Amino acid sequence: RFGTAPGTEEFWALLGRTRTGAARIEAYGRAIERRPCYPWAYFLRGLARLEQGELEPAIADFDTALRMNQRLSEAYLGRAQAWSQKGDRERAIGNYSWALRFNPQCPYAHYGRAQERAAAGEDAQAIADLEEVTKIAPGYAEAYDERGRLRAKGGDVAGAVQDWRRALEVASAGWSRRAEVARRIAEAGGK
Predict the structure, then answer these.
(1) Distance CA 110, CA 129 (A)
(2) CA 102 – CA 70 distance, rounded (Å)
(3) Using CB atoms within 10 A as the burial measure, which of 36, 39, 43, 79 is most buried?
(4) Collapsing DSSP states into helix, strand and coil, what is residue 20?
Protein backbone atom coordinates (compact mmCIF):
# COMPACT_ATOMS: atom_id res chain seq x y z
CA ARG A 1 0.00 0.00 0.00
CA PHE A 2 1.26 3.42 -0.87
CA GLY A 3 -1.60 5.80 -0.42
CA THR A 4 -1.07 9.20 -1.91
CA ALA A 5 -4.58 10.41 -1.18
CA PRO A 6 -4.68 13.66 0.78
CA GLY A 7 -4.56 12.97 4.48
CA THR A 8 -2.36 9.88 4.45
CA GLU A 9 1.13 9.92 5.95
CA GLU A 10 2.64 9.09 2.57
CA PHE A 11 0.85 12.06 1.01
CA TRP A 12 2.37 14.42 3.58
CA ALA A 13 5.82 12.85 3.26
CA LEU A 14 5.70 13.25 -0.53
CA LEU A 15 4.37 16.78 -0.22
CA GLY A 16 7.25 17.62 2.10
CA ARG A 17 9.69 16.73 -0.67
CA THR A 18 8.16 19.49 -2.83
CA ARG A 19 8.23 22.18 -0.15
CA THR A 20 11.00 24.29 1.34
CA GLY A 21 11.80 25.70 4.75
CA ALA A 22 9.13 25.69 7.42
CA ALA A 23 6.48 24.33 5.03
CA ARG A 24 8.65 21.26 4.44
CA ILE A 25 9.12 20.70 8.17
CA GLU A 26 5.38 21.14 8.72
CA ALA A 27 4.49 18.59 6.02
CA TYR A 28 6.76 15.98 7.61
CA GLY A 29 5.22 16.81 10.98
CA ARG A 30 1.78 16.12 9.53
CA ALA A 31 2.99 12.74 8.26
CA ILE A 32 4.27 11.98 11.77
CA GLU A 33 0.92 13.00 13.31
CA ARG A 34 -0.83 10.48 11.09
CA ARG A 35 1.69 7.72 11.68
CA PRO A 36 3.92 8.29 14.73
CA CYS A 37 5.94 5.13 14.01
CA TYR A 38 7.16 6.29 10.57
CA PRO A 39 10.99 6.47 10.76
CA TRP A 40 11.36 7.90 7.26
CA ALA A 41 9.19 10.90 8.16
CA TYR A 42 11.39 11.62 11.19
CA PHE A 43 14.49 11.20 9.05
CA LEU A 44 13.16 13.54 6.35
CA ARG A 45 12.06 16.13 8.90
CA GLY A 46 15.53 15.88 10.45
CA LEU A 47 17.08 16.65 7.07
CA ALA A 48 14.75 19.60 6.58
CA ARG A 49 15.67 20.92 10.01
CA LEU A 50 19.35 20.38 9.28
CA GLU A 51 18.98 22.46 6.09
CA GLN A 52 17.41 25.23 8.20
CA GLY A 53 20.25 25.12 10.75
CA GLU A 54 17.98 23.69 13.46
CA LEU A 55 20.65 21.29 14.72
CA GLU A 56 19.21 20.12 18.05
CA PRO A 57 15.72 19.37 16.64
CA ALA A 58 17.36 17.65 13.65
CA ILE A 59 19.42 15.43 15.96
CA ALA A 60 16.28 14.62 17.97
CA ASP A 61 14.46 13.56 14.78
CA PHE A 62 17.40 11.40 13.66
CA ASP A 63 17.51 9.84 17.14
CA THR A 64 13.79 9.03 16.94
CA ALA A 65 14.15 7.51 13.48
CA LEU A 66 17.03 5.36 14.73
CA ARG A 67 15.07 4.17 17.77
CA MET A 68 12.48 2.89 15.30
CA ASN A 69 14.97 1.47 12.81
CA GLN A 70 18.54 1.21 14.02
CA ARG A 71 19.69 0.10 10.56
CA LEU A 72 18.57 3.32 8.86
CA SER A 73 22.04 4.35 7.67
CA GLU A 74 20.72 7.60 6.20
CA ALA A 75 19.74 8.78 9.70
CA TYR A 76 23.28 8.15 10.97
CA LEU A 77 24.57 10.15 8.01
CA GLY A 78 22.22 13.04 8.78
CA ARG A 79 23.11 12.95 12.46
CA ALA A 80 26.82 12.93 11.57
CA GLN A 81 26.32 16.09 9.51
CA ALA A 82 24.50 17.76 12.39
CA TRP A 83 27.25 16.86 14.87
CA SER A 84 29.82 18.12 12.38
CA GLN A 85 28.03 21.46 12.12
CA LYS A 86 27.95 21.64 15.92
CA GLY A 87 31.73 21.11 15.93
CA ASP A 88 31.63 17.72 17.66
CA ARG A 89 34.10 15.85 15.46
CA GLU A 90 34.15 12.70 17.62
CA ARG A 91 30.37 12.23 17.42
CA ALA A 92 30.39 13.05 13.72
CA ILE A 93 33.05 10.40 13.02
CA GLY A 94 31.16 7.90 15.18
CA ASN A 95 27.93 8.45 13.26
CA TYR A 96 29.65 8.23 9.88
CA SER A 97 31.13 4.93 11.09
CA TRP A 98 27.67 3.66 12.10
CA ALA A 99 26.28 4.65 8.70
CA LEU A 100 29.08 2.63 7.10
CA ARG A 101 28.35 -0.34 9.33
CA PHE A 102 24.90 -0.62 7.75
CA ASN A 103 25.83 0.68 4.29
CA PRO A 104 29.55 0.14 3.64
CA GLN A 105 29.17 1.27 0.03
CA CYS A 106 28.02 4.80 0.92
CA PRO A 107 30.57 7.20 -0.58
CA TYR A 108 29.08 10.17 1.30
CA ALA A 109 29.72 8.54 4.66
CA HIS A 110 33.32 7.70 3.72
CA TYR A 111 33.84 11.24 2.40
CA GLY A 112 32.28 12.89 5.44
CA ARG A 113 34.34 10.77 7.81
CA ALA A 114 37.46 11.59 5.78
CA GLN A 115 36.77 15.31 6.11
CA GLU A 116 36.33 15.00 9.87
CA ARG A 117 39.46 12.88 10.21
CA ALA A 118 41.49 15.32 8.12
CA ALA A 119 40.27 18.23 10.27
CA ALA A 120 41.39 16.25 13.33
CA GLY A 121 44.86 15.74 11.84
CA GLU A 122 44.24 12.03 11.17
CA ASP A 123 45.49 12.26 7.60
CA ALA A 124 46.33 8.57 7.09
CA GLN A 125 42.82 7.50 8.14
CA ALA A 126 41.30 10.25 5.99
CA ILE A 127 43.28 9.07 2.97
CA ALA A 128 42.09 5.49 3.62
CA ASP A 129 38.46 6.70 3.61
CA LEU A 130 39.06 8.65 0.41
CA GLU A 131 40.55 5.51 -1.18
CA GLU A 132 37.22 3.81 -0.47
CA VAL A 133 35.30 6.69 -2.02
CA THR A 134 37.30 6.48 -5.24
CA LYS A 135 36.69 2.70 -5.42
CA ILE A 136 32.95 3.00 -4.76
CA ALA A 137 32.31 6.17 -6.76
CA PRO A 138 35.14 6.73 -9.27
CA GLY A 139 33.45 9.90 -10.54
CA TYR A 140 33.56 11.67 -7.15
CA ALA A 141 35.89 14.56 -8.08
CA GLU A 142 35.91 16.05 -4.57
CA ALA A 143 37.39 12.83 -3.17
CA TYR A 144 40.35 12.98 -5.58
CA ASP A 145 40.80 16.67 -4.82
CA GLU A 146 40.79 16.11 -1.05
CA ARG A 147 43.09 13.09 -1.28
CA GLY A 148 45.45 15.15 -3.44
CA ARG A 149 45.47 17.92 -0.85
CA LEU A 150 46.30 15.45 1.92
CA ARG A 151 49.00 13.77 -0.18
CA ALA A 152 50.61 17.14 -0.92
CA LYS A 153 50.48 18.01 2.77
CA GLY A 154 52.30 14.74 3.52
CA GLY A 155 54.98 15.39 0.89
CA ASP A 156 53.66 13.10 -1.88
CA VAL A 157 53.51 15.78 -4.57
CA ALA A 158 53.47 13.28 -7.46
CA GLY A 159 50.52 11.44 -5.90
CA ALA A 160 48.77 14.76 -5.29
CA VAL A 161 49.16 15.85 -8.90
CA GLN A 162 47.88 12.47 -10.07
CA ASP A 163 44.78 12.84 -7.87
CA TRP A 164 44.16 16.41 -8.97
CA ARG A 165 44.43 15.43 -12.63
CA ARG A 166 41.94 12.63 -12.02
CA ALA A 167 39.61 15.11 -10.29
CA LEU A 168 39.67 17.29 -13.40
CA GLU A 169 39.04 14.26 -15.64
CA VAL A 170 35.91 13.15 -13.78
CA ALA A 171 34.53 16.55 -12.78
CA SER A 172 31.68 18.21 -14.62
CA ALA A 173 32.50 21.22 -16.79
CA GLY A 174 30.91 23.54 -14.25
CA TRP A 175 32.69 22.10 -11.20
CA SER A 176 33.34 25.01 -8.83
CA ARG A 177 36.82 23.77 -7.83
CA ARG A 178 38.11 23.34 -11.40
CA ALA A 179 40.25 26.52 -11.56
CA GLU A 180 41.63 26.02 -8.05
CA VAL A 181 42.67 22.42 -8.77
CA ALA A 182 44.30 23.43 -12.07
CA ARG A 183 46.22 26.15 -10.20
CA ARG A 184 47.46 23.61 -7.64
CA ILE A 185 48.67 21.31 -10.41
CA ALA A 186 50.59 24.18 -12.02
CA GLU A 187 52.10 25.26 -8.68
CA ALA A 188 53.23 21.68 -8.02
CA GLY A 189 55.04 21.64 -11.36
CA GLY A 190 52.57 19.26 -12.97
CA LYS A 191 51.52 21.81 -15.66
Answers:
(1) 5
(2) 9
(3) 79
(4) coil
